[in-house]
């Protein structure tokens, strides 16, 4: 075979194969990036709902854990332990330490697989009790309810005629 023909064939093959392999590689990397984004979002949603396992959001997320982490044995083991606990005779209590430990175990394993660094201590420290939210919401509601009265008082004070020398 003539060296020029061999060179032409090699250049033609590289011209065809190069862009195709670049596109396939790019699609593969994009797919991996999307899967990681889904995993991180799932972990964040579970962290947000971890203290309320009776909420519908928690249940929806738990239903897809095996689909998003199908090859991660540690995650699936922690998931199974939590699932068995919830399916057993145990009631879902907000302050149940066993339940909190099982949820924390699963979240720690999931976060490791996503490249996040949550520890059991952080998951406990980031806990805000519903009482704090209720107190804050009550104060906010009272403040909002008093705004019209404050606005009326300010309006009355600004529209009432004052003479020089009158005390306010």
Automatic annotation (TrEMBL):
Q: Name one Pfam family in it.
A: DUF6680
Q: Which residues cross the membrane?
A: 6-29
- The answer to whether UniProt assigns keyword Membrane to this entry is yes
Residue span, DUF6680 domain: 8-152
Q: Which UniProt keywords apply?
A: Membrane, Transmembrane, Transmembrane helix
Per its record, how is this protein called by name?
DUF6680 domain-containing protein
Task: Name the species this protein comes from.
Answer: Hyphomonas oceanitis SCH89
């Amino acid at each position: 075979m003539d060296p020029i023909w061999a060179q032409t064939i090699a250049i033609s093959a590289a011209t065809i194969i190069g862009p195709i392999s670049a596109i396939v590689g790019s699609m593969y990397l994009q797919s991996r990036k999307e899967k990681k984004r889904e995993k991180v979002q799932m972990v964040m949603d579970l962290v947000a709902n971890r203290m309320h396992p009776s909420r519908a959001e928690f249940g929806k997320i738990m239903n897809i854990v095996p689909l998003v982490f199908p090859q991660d044995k540690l995650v699936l083991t922690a998931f199974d332990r939590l699932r068995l606990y919830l399916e057993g005779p145990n009631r879902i209590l907000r302050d149940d330490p066993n339940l909190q430990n099982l949820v924390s175990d699963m979240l720690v394993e999931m976060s490791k697989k996503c490249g996040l660094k949550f520890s059991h201590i952080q998951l406990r420290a980031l806990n805000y009790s519903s009482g704090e939210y209720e107190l804050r919401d009550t104060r906010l509601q009272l403040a909002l309810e008093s705004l019209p009265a404050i606005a009326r008082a300010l309006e009355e004070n600004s529209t009432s005629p004052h003479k020089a020398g009158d005390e306010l």
